[in-house]
Amino acid sequence: MAEFARLLIDESARQNLIAPSTLDSIWSRHIVDSAQLIGLAAENEGDWLDIGSGAGFPGLVVATLTERRTVLVEPRKRRVEFLHAAAEALGIANRVSVMAGKVESVSEPVAVISARAVAQLNALLASAVQCSRRKTLWILPKGRTAREEVAVAEQTWHGVFHVEQSITDPESLIVLAKGVSRR
User: Which CATH superfamily is domain 2-182 in?
Assistant: First the structure.
């Protein structure tokens, strides 16, 4: 992970991958925050889809720390180029697919779907439900608004929704969902 942190810091001088104010806390704020999601998905074996991968959180962290095939979806060209280069440099390109575009164009079913700071829960579910099956686990770091977003989503979506406390920030929450389908 140290190599990934170095790559990210170097690239941050060329493009705004993460807020400059968080570079000093890259380990806790980004890497550990992403790594904690792996334990939440331990029982869901199979491919991992990361929506809006940006700087590679959590997708590249998952691919580096596990043997999972990981699909990173990112619409911004320069970030796609960074994700490709980082996967190569980390020696994980054989199990990382980087897709340039929006998740609506992806249809392959996966075991786990993650998205960090991408969209409101309702919009996120709508954009990727075609990749979800009954047993797919959605792991969505949402911050303080998690419970409110779940309440809104439950008006449109069936499923089992649960909110977990983040280990990296006492004010941060993670939405877990399974069995997601439209009402």
Answer: Vaccinia Virus protein VP39 (3.40.50.150)
Angle, vertex CA 102, rays to CA 161 and CA 165, nearest 5: 30
- The residues, any chain, with a CB within 8 Å of residue 15's CB and separated by 6 or more, are 78, 79, 82
The mean pLDDT value for 57-68 works out to 97
182 bridge partner residues: 157
What are the beta bridge partners of residue 46?
none
76 φ, ψ (degrees, to nearest 5): -85, 125
Tokens 């990173």 correspond to what residue? 72
Structure tokens at 76: 């911004």
pLDDT value, residue 24: 87
CB within 8 Å of 99: residues ≥ 6 apart: 71, 72, 73, 74, 105, 106
Each residue's pLDDT tens digit, 103-134: 999 999 999 999 998 899 999 999 999 999 99
